[in-house]
């Protein structure tokens, strides 16, 4: 049974954590958080485990972070799960990664329904193996009428590729006369990106110490706050997520204007 904030009775064991979550929830919460889930390989290496063990642990951690994000009232969570560049990894690793959405979505789907969470995806689904496509499509269809948080997976996603596709669509509309050159605005471009249904992320988190964007949401992150941590993704906890959101809440976003405006 869930209470009206989406909490289970068992959640209330850690009173300090609950209090912290409620405080975060009562302030200005980022409507959209994007996460680059990095460091699965290093997490595994530190434990003398194969890299794929890190990916599996990383997959399990998505549950923890989804639950926490949902509890504090985040509107959308976009997770970078597989980039257009990740196809260059060894075949076995790619095959393993492509099995994870199935495992995750099958076992987590009942809880996603209970939490009223809607699953979405950005990236080119057609190039994924059929079994991966089926798992993602099934989760998107099953959760389509949920009205709570959006859990958005970036799978076979690359921001530059997304921009190329967007330009192609826009140029086609200009060529067939449904759009005039003068009417192309920033909004036109946003509307042709794969994230057209989502607000731009307020906060970007990257785990595991790297300080780069790796072709993730380059247009959408123009005004986002960034949060980097040394923690590897499989160990990134609900407390770490709260720390990132608390830091976001203490910042003053100016969008190029002046303080206080
Ligand atoms: C980067 O770590 C991580 C990835 C390329 C894969 C991320 C995928 C998951 C966390 C699970 C996806 C699950 C679902 C349900 C879609 P890395 O391998 O580059 O780590 P390293 O830099 O330490 O080697």
UniProtKB/TrEMBL annotation:
InterPro entries reported in the protein's UniProt record: UPP_synth-like, UPP_synth-like_CS, UPP_synth-like_sf
Which cofactor does the UniProt annotation name? Answer: Mg(2+)
- For the ligand (Mg(2+)), the binding residues are 38, 225
Q: Which SUPFAM superfamilies match?
A: Undecaprenyl diphosphate synthase
What Enzyme Commission number(s) apply to this enzyme?
2.5.1.-
The record ties this protein, via Gene3D superfamilies, to: Decaprenyl diphosphate synthase-like (3.40.1180.10)
State if Metal-binding is listed as a keyword: yes
- Cellular component GO terms, alphabetical: cytosol
Annotated PANTHER family: DEHYDRODOLICHYL DIPHOSPHATE SYNTHASE 2, DEHYDRODOLICHYL DIPHOSPHATE SYNTHASE FAMILY MEMBER
Function description: Catalyzes the condensation of isopentenyl diphosphate (IPP) with allylic pyrophosphates generating different type of terpenoids.
Recorded hits in HAMAP family, A to Z, give: ISPT
The UniProt similarity line reads: Belongs to the UPP synthase family.
Name the UniProt record assigns to this protein: Isoprenyl transferase
Q: Which organism is it from?
A: Candidatus Kurthia intestinigallinarum
């Amino acid at each position: 049974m869930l209470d009206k904030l989406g909490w289970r009775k068992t959640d209330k064991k850690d009173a300090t954590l609950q209090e912290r979550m409620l405080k975060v929830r009562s302030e200005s919460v980022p409507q959209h958080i994007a996460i680059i889930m990095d460091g699965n390989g290093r997490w595994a290496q530190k434990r003398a485990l194969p890299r794929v063990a890190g990916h599996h642990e990383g997959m399990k951690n998505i549950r923890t972070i989804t639950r926490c994000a949902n509890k504090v009232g985040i509107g959308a969570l976009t997770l970078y799960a597989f980039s257009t560049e990740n196809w260059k990894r060894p075949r076995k690793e790619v095959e393993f990664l492509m099995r994870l959405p199935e495992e995750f979505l099958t076992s987590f789907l009942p809880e996603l329904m209970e939490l009223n969470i809607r699953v979405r995806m950005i990236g080119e689904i057609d190039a994924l193996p059929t079994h991966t496509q089926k798992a993602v499509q099934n989760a998107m269809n099953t959760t389509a009428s949920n009205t709570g948080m959006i859990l958005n997976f970036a799978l076979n996603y690359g921001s530059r590729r997304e921009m190329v596709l967007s330009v192609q669509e826009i140029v086609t509309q200009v060529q067939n006369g449904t759009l005039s050159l003068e009417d192309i605005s920033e909004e036109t471009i946003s509307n042709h990106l794969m994230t057209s249904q989502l607000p731009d992320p307020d906060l970007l988190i990257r785990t595991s110490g790297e300080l780069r964007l790796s072709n993730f949401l380059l247009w959408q992150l123009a005004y986002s706050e960034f949060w980097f941590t040394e923690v590897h993704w499989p160990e990134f906890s609900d407390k770490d997520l709260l720390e990132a959101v608390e830091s976001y809440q203490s910042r003053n976003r100016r969008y190029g204007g002046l303080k206080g405006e």
